[in-house]
Structures are given as structure tokens and as C-alpha cells.
Input
Amino acid sequence: MNHADDYKAINAIGEQIASFRASDETALVVGFGSHKGSPGCESGSLSVTVRKGGFEATSEALRLGDAIFLARGKVNREIEADRAAKEKAKAEV
Output
């Protein structure tokens, strides 16, 4: 691969990651990594950290898209739990 091909490939990854964001979301993939295989998972894995507002979560999976969706799900559950806790606290006042 030459630099032009690298640039195109990296931009294609960026476009693909952007496509995972739902139109009503401000979720942002803030980091991702590749992990070497192990005896239990010879092909290795990818980890992704997603941030949405003040909430952040990291997930690891065999495929980038799966890791993004898992991390986004964790963030959404944290946001919902925070919202529910605030509503409960408000109701107790």
C-alpha cells in the first residue's frame, strides 16, 4: 500500500464509523484498538470507546461494528440509568 491508498482506507473507515451513528445521536467513537490473538481467540479482537455527552464505555469484539454497537449500548444504558436515578430523586423530594 502507498500513502494515497492508506489515506483512502483510513477515510473509508471514518465514513463507515460515522454511518453507525444514528441520526438522533451525538455518539462519537473516541478511540479504537486492535489486540493480538490469544489461545482462546487466535484471530485477535478490536476494542472501541464510545463517548456520548459525559458518558463513556469501551467494548471489545471480533469485528469493529460489533464493538461499536456494544459500546454504544453500554453508554445508552448508563444514560438511561442516570436519567431514572434523577427522576427517582426528584420524585422523593
Q: What stands out?
A: DSSP finds two helices and three strands in the chain. Residues 24 and 36 are 35 Å apart (CA to CA). The first helix runs from residue 3 to 20. The first strand starts at residue 28 and ends at 35.
